[in-house]
Amino acid sequence: MARASWPEAPFDAQMERVQSDLFDIGAHLAAPGTSRFAGVDRERIAELERGIDEMESELAPLRNFILPGGSLAAAHLHAARAVCRRAERLVVALGDKASIVYLNRLSDFLFVAARVANRRHGVDDVPWKS
After folding, report:
1. Closest Cα partner for 24 from 7, 9, 10, 44?
2. pTM exceeds 0.85 for this model
């Protein structure tokens, strides 16, 4: 859904690779021990980190927490991040170290991507108010 709501996103190619990575992780988790999956390649994690750095270069530093929302694309990316965090917690509980780091970096990538979506769509991030 996140890709469909903003197909011209500057990080769409990265998101397509993410979908393939998640498919591999899902197959491994569905039938552990039946494949040669050794985890997501470290270079893919490095690509996510480079993508985070590149996107952050166009964003103002955060001065407070933000709530999910803003543009439709950002809202979908925030929802994807929530699902990713939930998956990360479940994978931690399973003890599958091969996927934990990737899911952690992916959730950060999705958070920054949501902020970029808001910026590119001319919508302010939604600040959290206590």
Report:
1. 44
2. yes
Give the torsion through C-alpha atoms of 28, 83, 41, 115, to 10 deg: 170
Q: Give 1-34 pLDDT, tens digit per residue.
A: 889 989 899 999 999 999 999 998 988 888 877 7
Q: Classify residue 130 by burial, with Cβ atoms within 10 Å: 0-12, 13-18, 19+.
A: exposed
Structure-block tokens of residue 23: 């498919």
pLDDT in tens, 96-129: 787 899 999 999 999 999 999 999 999 999 999 9
Given a contact cutoff of 8 angstroms between Cβ atoms, the answer to whether 116 and 10 are in contact is yes
Length of the chain in terms of residues written: 130
* Domain boundary assignment for the chain: 2-127
Domain 2-127's class? mainly alpha
d(CA 12, CA 6): 8
Q: Where are the beta strands (DSSP E) in 1-128?
A: 66-67, 126-127
